Please model this.
Amino acid sequence: MTQSSGRGLAIGVALLAFGLAACSRSGPSDAQGKPGEAKAAPIAITTAPAAARGIPRTVEVTGTLLPFEEVTLTNAQAGTVEAILVDLGDRVEPGQLLLRLDDREARLAAAQAEANLLAAERGLGRARAAAEAAVATVARAQAALEEARLNRKRFEDLFAEGAVSASQRDSARTQDEMAAATVREAEAQAESEAQAIQTAAAAVEQARAALGLARKRAADTEVRSPLKGA
Model:
């Protein structure tokens, strides 16, 4: 049993030595390769430090988008649409212009209302000037009446003393009565002018209200977004 193991070990060592010799002989021949054969190109390898990063994930679904808030736009001014300034799905801001109606008639009406207001204001100015003139006329008439009354009294006293004739006294009386009538006429005119001021002022207010309405109608030709959305 011991001799058999020794022979087996010797045979194994011999085979190993033969294998090493064969490898040493075939190495240079294999390294040189066959004539005409190209050598394999080296493979480039790029390295980078490991880092954590997010990976986009896309999920395709079928559904219906519903808004959080929905607003129905209406316009007080009827007319022909001249321009639509947004499209379906566009994002809008509060107050952004969405569409415009034909505003030619509305603009003309606003311009006419503005002219009417200007004319009414001028009329009010004339009425005030006339009233001031009427008040001044009343003041002059009253001053003339005071003078006529003093003159009448003086002539009546002189007539009583026999210093003047009856016709002179009567003339002074007539002047006094005419001055009183002039005062009454001036006061009536002043009252009429005061009423004219009230009428003119009312016309101004009416014209101003008409202008405001005309401007609103012109502004209503533009439809704007009441809130932010799409």
